[in-house]
Every structure is written in C-alpha cells, then in structure tokens.
Amino acid sequence: MSLLHLDLRAWTVGGPVAAEVGIHDDDGSSLDCNAFASRIAGKHLVLVTHGFNVTSTNGTVALEGWKQLANLKEPCIFVGLLWPGDSLFLPVLDYPVEASVAIQSAALLADFLSVNASGVTALSMVSHSLGARVVLETAKRLAPRPINTLLLMAAAIEDDCLTAEYSEIPRNVQRIRLVASRRDLVLEYAFPLGNPIGELIARGHPYFRQALGRAGAYPAPTDCVDFQHWQIPDAPSDWHYGHGDYMPHKPIPAGRARSIVAPLTPPSSSDPAPVGDDLIDCEWSAAVIATQWTNNV
C-alpha cells in the first residue's frame, strides 16, 4: 500500500489505543517523528480517517483507495489515520463503548500533532462514520490552533453536536462540510439513541437524536465562517447511498480511469446518481474530498 499514515492501534484487529503513534511511510516502512515532521513541513496536512468496525488491514485499503480516487494536489498531503474502532470479540455489538475509544484516540492524536505538525501551512481533517468523533475531539483538544476544513461524511454522532457537545468547534474552523444520506440504514437503525420512529420524535426531542450523517446538523451552527451541508438525494432521483458506500472496500485496480472529476457542487434532489462500476459511489465521495481543495467549492 502506498499510504503515508499514522497508526493509533495497539493491535491490528480490536484492542486498545496504542501507547504512542506509529508512523508509516508510503512503502510501509516506519518513520520517526522528525522524519514525519520534515515530510509534512510547508504542506497542507489533510488527515483522513475511517469509521467504526474497521480493522487495520481494511482501514488501510479504504484510505489508500480514497487517496487514489481523490488525487489531491500539492501543497496538500493526504495522510491516513488508523484507530481501533473495532472489536476482536464483539464486532458491531461493542459500538456503545467505541465512542470512548474514539476520544482516547483523539487525545493521543492531538498531543502528537501539537508537537509534530507545527510546520504545516494548514491542517484539515476528513472522516467517515464514527471517525467524526475522533476528528472533532482532536480539533477541540488542539484549540486555539485553527483548523482549515472539517469534512464529515456519514457522521455517526448526534446531529446537534456542533451546537452542543462540540459547540466551540465551528468558531475555530474556517470551513465545515457535512455529507449526509437519509438512505443510510446503519445510522437510522443502529445509531445509539436512534429508533425506527426517529423521524417522528427526534427533531427537537431532548432525549432522542438522529445522527449527523443522515440529514445534517440540527440545529445548524451559526458560528462557522463557511458551513455547507451536502445532502445526497433520496427523492426523486434516489442515489441509494448507504453507510458502506463512501469508502472503497477493495484495492483500486491499476489504471482505472476516473469518471467523476472535481470540483463538484452540492447535489440537488433532481441530480441523477453517478453511473459506473461498483466503485462509483466511492469515487463520488473522493471527488467531494478533492473538491474542497479544488477551487474551494
């Protein structure tokens, strides 16, 4: 895998947060902190992470695929982040405890970045699913250091988090982008505090919240200079965009030509779904990533 990445895992499957951050170069070799700091100095660090129930191997495949499809240009540098949001013994069923693991991961990451990423020109973070809590908690711990862009896809966190738990984040971030889908059945039925009649009771209810990654922020933050919500169409041009459609689950074939090119604009309800092979949805989400650093759409 040709992926520069940071590894917060103690084990490759399940297990706790590591005692220190592992750093791996594009060829898989280890780097020390000084080499990493030198590698990212003078660049826009775009830190990209996966979500819940993802092993080290699967996370590497997904992040490498996103890197290839997004094809970020200089001065951006794509750095993948692996964290232990999975369980060796209770996969999926351990979701309620993984939020605390995400927070522990963020604490380790924030300490690492505060020391080793001082030479970057800007810092941005992209996440999928429960990875949203990792990057939001990291941003919180790095404050008052400014964040250029937070891009949260299918965020498995409460839809009021930007005005409640992480209400201070929007003031410290230049741009926030949310990508959400109402066809995300994982967030509709498996998200903690979610339920089959969530549409009837969630909005404004003090105890039941929807996920940020289904229909966006409620209420929307007003403190961010540049806040944008990309809602994937569900009617009449239903894209059928589910929780597992954002990130690739297998290596991208060598020489595969891209059919979706950044920059994109937020989709409208009448926009047709992307058409192509079984990687087309991942290609679209990668183009969303690339769009943030291509004419800043």
Give an overview in words.
It is globular, with a radius of gyration of 18 Å. It is α/β, with parallel strands linked by helices and 297 residues long. It is 28% helix and 19% strand. The protein is built from eight helices and eight strands. The chain starts with a strand and ends in a 6-residue tail after the last helix. About 7% of the residues have low confidence. The longest helix is centred in the middle third of the chain and has 22 residues. It has one domain: Rossmann fold, CATH 3.40.50. Strands 2-1-4-3-5-6-7-8 form an eight-stranded mixed beta sheet, sandwiched between helices. Helix 2 crosses helix 8.
SSE blueprint and pairings:
Elements: E1 5-9, E2 17-24, H1 33-40, E3 44-49, H2 56-70, E4 76-82, H3 95-116, E5 122-128, H4 131-142, E6 147-153, E7 173-181, H5 185-190, H6 198-201, H7 212-215, E8 226-232, H8 280-291
Parallel strand pairs: 1-4, 3-4, 3-5, 5-6, 6-7, 7-8
Antiparallel strand pairs: 1-2
Quick summary of this structure?
The chain is α/β, with parallel strands linked by helices and 297 residues long.
Tell me what portion of residues adopts beta-strand conformation: 15-25%
Structural class by SSE content: alpha/beta
CATH topology: Rossmann fold
How many helices? The count is 8
Encode the helix/strand succession as letters: EEHEHEHEHEEHHHEH
Provide the number of structural domains. Answer: 1
Radius of gyration: 18 Å
Portion of residues within helices: 25-40%
**Neighbour order of strands in the largest sheet:** 2-1-4-3-5-6-7-8
Distance between the termini: 30 Å
Biggest sheet architecture: 8 strands, mixed
Average pLDDT: 89
The CATH architecture: 3-Layer(aba) Sandwich
Tertiary shape: globular
Give a count of the beta strands, DSSP E runs of length 2 or more: 8
Return residue spans where pLDDT drops below 50 for at least 5 consecutive residues. 89-95, 193-206
- Determine and state the CATH class: Alpha Beta
